[in-house]
Specification:
elongated; mainly alpha; about 60 residues
Length: about 60
């Protein structure tokens, strides 16, 4: 059976995974319990600039 990925592709994938898990937004989203990196980034932006008003309905799932 042949390997599913070529060696170069698996190195690239491994490098991407390392960069992904070293990303501060990915780490922050895991620590705070956010569903995704994007929702954590929105919370960070809102904390700095208060873009989202309380009670505003959103399609993004954020922790309470």
């Amino acid at each position: 059976m042949e390997p599913r990925f070529h060696l170069a592709e698996s190195k690239r994938a491994g490098r991407w995974l390392k960069e992904h898990f070293d990303d501060p937004y990915v780490k922050g989203s895991r620590e705070s319990g956010c569903c995704s990196r994007a929702s954590f980034m929105l919370l960070e932006i809102d904390f700095k600039d208060t873009l989202i008003n309380p009670g505003l309905k959103s399609s993004i799932s954020m922790p309470p």
